[in-house]
Amino acid sequence: MAQIIIITVIGIVCGILIYIAYRKIPQKVQGLEKTEEISSILPGLNCGACGYAGCFGLAQALTQNPELVRNAPCALTVQDPDRLKRLGIALGMEIDASDLIKKALVHCSGGSVSIYDYSGINTCKGASLLLGGNKKCPFSCLGYGDCSKVCPVEAIKIDPGKNVVLVDWNKCIGCGLCVSECPQNIIELVPVKTKISLLCSYTPLRNINGRERCENGCLHCRRCVRACEFGAIIWNEQKLMPEFDASKCTLCLKCVEVCPAKCLIKSVLAENETPVPVATVSNTALQQKSDEK
């Protein structure tokens, strides 16, 4: 009889402890519910173009820091007003599509000469494995078009004269597939409101013996910084390269005029007074290009 009572008491105590644990311990991981909500709004293609491991990975990052939506926007979400509105509600912030539209910018003018004949696999990745590429500038566009092959809207073409890729901003959707495909790391997604473009990625911090900038390479003279009267150009001490603030730029073009290397140009869409249309692409096209990578 005593044993039955003891077992009964133990059962009751365990039941009480389980109930307390159920009431006190969170049933879900903190933030998981919000992450799932955001993930359900995103396209679900898991293309990785945003820089995260799929849509759920982006949703996790946005849960922790909603402001990341301005730095890593999903191209398909930006071009879908309803989806973008729902995302803004989920993040608790107003999102203006015009602030999220980005375009691919190639930081190279294609002026670097070849230092040897490359006869390997006809890809940038293949060429970059041999001494960092066959161009004199180690940060030059290699011109084999890996980026153009993954572009879902055919916005990237190769200039046969300069052997450098050119991006048509009227077609570019800012998906970012070309950015991750470039072995030289010279393609960047920049805001469509960008007014001045730097066509060089050469930095003395990564000098390589026997290699040098081309004739149109940045000299790091900082003349552009000194010429700007509006504080629209700052000098990045870590990269030793100029950076541009489009909100302060008046398009006076003094920086372009004083640049001795002529590696600064006015951006293609800089003077557009009408809203820039968001180029569109089907989910299928983007998924196919992502799968091909």
Task: Explain the overall architecture.
This protein is α+β, with helices and mostly antiparallel strands and 293 residues long. It folds into 2 domains: 32-100, no CATH class; 102-292, no CATH class. Helices cover 33% and strands 11% of the residues. The chain is built from 12 helices and 8 strands. It has helices spanning 2-24, 32-41, 54-64, 75-78, 81-91, 97-100, 124-128, 146-150, 177-181, 223-227, 254-258, 283-292; strands at 102-106, 156-159, 164-167, 187-191, 196-198, 233-236, 241-244, 264-266. The strands form 4 sheets. The chain has a two-stranded antiparallel ribbon. Strands 2-3 form a two-stranded antiparallel sheet. Strand 6 (233-236) and strand 7 (241-244) form a beta hairpin. Helix 2 packs across helix 3 (54-64). The protein is elongated and about 100 Å long. The model is unreliable at 273-284 (pLDDT under 50).
